[in-house]
Amino acid sequence: MKIIILGAGQVGASVAAELASEANDITVIDTDGQRLRELGDRLDIRTVQGRGSFPTVLRQAGADDADMLIAVTSSDETNMIACQVAFTLFKTPTKIARVRESAYLTRGGLFKNAAVPIDVLISPEQVVTNYIKRLIDNPGALQVLDFADGKVQLVAVRAYYGGPLVGQELRFLRQHMPGVDTRVAAIFRKNRPILPQGDTVIEADDEVFFVAATPDIRAVMSELRRLEKSNKRIIIAGGGNIGERLAEAIENRYRVKIIEKNPARADYLAQNLDRTVVLSGSASDKELLIEENIEEVDIFCAVTDDDEANIMSAMLAKRLGARKVMALINNPAYVDLVQGGEIDIAISPSQATIGTLLTHVRRGDIVNVYSLRRGAAEAIEAIAHGDARSSQVIGKPIRDIKLPPGTTIGAIVRDEEVLIAHDSTVIEADDHVVLFVIDKKHIRDVERLFQVGLTFF
User: Fold this and answer.
1) Which residues, if any, are the signal sequence (predicted)?
2) Nearest-angstrom CA–CA distance, 263 and 249
3) Which pairing describes strands 207-213 and 182-189: parallel, antiparallel, or unpaired?
């Protein structure tokens, strides 16, 4: 595909790296020449310096025959105008824009071809808020991903010494939990992927990805690690867009406090949040944390727009006794450095957001894509269309489907029914199929599997 990306910031650069690695024709536009040079040195892409909303700049970037425009600059208005220009002058088929300001997002009918022609809206703050909320709702999980409107979840956990399944072969999973069906989709051991077989033995410290119907997730987690008690007390460091949205999303289920440095913003939050306690001060103020009984806090979540402040306040909270700490980290180089040490979970906004973009770049009928382990692996939800003659998957048991290397089918959702995938499971038309791909170079093969042959038409 020929794709133009507006904005070479964290999200734009991550998207460019992801898509360039899949042999797409990528052009990145930004006003910052230095940033473009660094990106151009690192990736096989074209770069154009200028304002992405200008028709001349878009034409220079190849908008005349581009398949897609992805506008992810830091300015909502620039992103919106760029989509308008691409639609009006260049008839660009797919226009994706990052729009952060909730004042735009609450107006129905604004983003239509007759008004502002944007096909796909991305709100990173909302994506990250949902991501953190799922982690809070599932204590002990490293990652929680929803498929088929939340009917199925893919969960990553670290296997602990003493877990019932640690040291056992995977085939014993069914004996341990006769009433629960689940499938281990992948195991990462010392950062290397292992494709699970029946005789694969789970070791302590393995990162295990498993698929199950959402109500069964907690039961499966208890087999791999000591179940953590439910979260009750949450402290959010930073009352910006993400902090405010997260507090709104969880304040009815948990006891929530927000620490906000800016007194005016703290005052605004106090007036607009119903049950959240708002504290005006610094999240790295040791006395304040002690005063607020940090040792009784279940989760300390640092979500300011400053990576260093998030890292330092989370480490301090952990040292002072918080049970689990999370930190929002924009710089990808920091994420692997800090996660798993004093910081339990490092959240990368660009990695959380990139799945939304990839969903619309993938061919075949792909309805959900999640980037896993910093982009090394992917979880995909695809819909099986066609019939037994035109489709490579319909009417076949899973054992007979020629899956690309390193690919596993984890679950199938048929109407309201969740079927965990086994060798004998037969895929039917309109099934939602959840796949796990541990080697990104086989993504195109997976897409081709779910494309309908011409005989169907």
Assistant:
1) none
2) 23
3) antiparallel
